[in-house]
């Protein structure tokens, strides 16, 4: 009897492990415009301007597209932050693989840019670069500007004013609460749990914007 129960428990465990792998429905994988999910999230896409580390405008459309399950998590983060008079400003979301190749041609250094041969989590529509804003949309003081590739941007860098450390922690805590994984070397970068289940894409932002 005991063996039968054990076998049943084992079968249940295996089934669950499999369903964990297949926890995303086809609808979850669709790329959606974050402002259609929550228009209060501020979108300021740096790669759609010349104000980025390459000095070049790399996107044709200043939009934040994310896999739907990621966008819904971010919506929850925004709602939670609003309760304390804060909000989100996103700097980068889904990034087409062809743009990753351009970034790599300018900075072929894996400390700063993901090698397009492997692809970035941004290429999967599962990563987001963002900061905190107050209720008027002003950015809160953070350790560095966006895409500052120095150790000052690392999450374990503490030679900073108390308010900056506090702001970085507020962002990190709320993102973790909703299933995002912080990148240790960039305080602004978070990956959605389960990103490895999603493929690398090269759909131009302009195409996505037509839908
Ligand atoms: Zn990033």
What does this structure look like?
With about 210 residues, the chain is α+β, with helices and mostly antiparallel strands. The chain has a single domain (about 25-210), classed as 2-Layer Sandwich (Muramoyl-pentapeptide Carboxypeptidase, domain 2), CATH 3.30.1380. It has 6 helices and 7 strands. The protein has helices spanning about 1-20, 35, 70-80, 95-105, 160-175, 205-210; strands spanning about 30-35, 40-45, 65, 85-90, 125-135, 180, 190. Strands 2-4-5-7-6 form a 5-stranded mixed beta sheet, with helices on one face. The relative contact order is 0.15. Mean pLDDT is about 90; it is low at about 15-20.
How many helices does DSSP assign? 6
CATH class: Alpha Beta
Radius of gyration, whole Å: 19 Å
Coarse shape: globular
Percent range for helical residues?
25-40%
Specify the biggest β-sheet.
Answer: 5 strands, mixed
- Which H/E pattern describes the elements? HEHEEHEHEHEEH
Query: How do the strands of the widest beta sheet line up side by side?
Result: 2-4-5-7-6
Number of strands: 7
How many discrete domains?
1
> What's the average pLDDT?
90
User: Structural class of the helix and strand makeup?
Assistant: alpha+beta
CATH topology description:
Muramoyl-pentapeptide Carboxypeptidase, domain 2
Uncertain stretches of 5 or more adjacent residues: 15-21
* Share of residues in strands: 5-15%
- What is the architecture at the second tier of CATH? 2-Layer Sandwich
Distance between the termini: 57 Å
Bound molecules: zinc ion
Function: Catalyzes hydrolysis of the D-alanyl-D-alanine dipeptide.
EC number: 3.4.13.22
Catalytic activity: D-alanyl-D-alanine + H2O = 2 D-alanine
Pfam families: Peptidase_M15
């Amino acid at each position: 009897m005991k063996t039968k129960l054990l076998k049943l428990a084992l079968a249940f465990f295996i089934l669950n492990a499999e369903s964990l792998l297949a926890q995303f429905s086809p609808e979850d994988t669709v790329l959606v415009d974050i402002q259609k999910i929550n228009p209060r999230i501020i979108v300021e896409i740096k790669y759609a301007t010349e104000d980025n580390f390459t000095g070049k405008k790399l996107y044709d459309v200043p939009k934040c597209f994310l896999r739907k399950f990621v966008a819904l998590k971010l919506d929850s983060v925004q709602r939670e932050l609003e309760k304390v008079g804060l909000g989100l400003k996103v700097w980068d979301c889904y990034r087409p693989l062809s743009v990753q190749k351009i970034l790599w041609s300018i900075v072929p250094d894996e400390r700063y840019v993901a090698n397009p041969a492997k692809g970035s989590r941004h290429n999967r529509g599962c990563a987001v670069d963002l900061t905190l804003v107050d209720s008027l949309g002003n950015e809160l003081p953070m350790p560095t500007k966006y895409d500052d590739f120095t150790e000052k941007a690392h999450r374990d860098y503490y030679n900073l004013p108390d308010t900056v450390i506090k702001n970085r922690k507020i962002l990190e805590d709320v993102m973790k609460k909703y299933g995002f994984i912080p990148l240790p070397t960039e305080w602004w970068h978070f990956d959605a749990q389960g990103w490895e289940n999603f493929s690398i894409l090269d759909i131009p932002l302009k195409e996505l914007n037509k839908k």
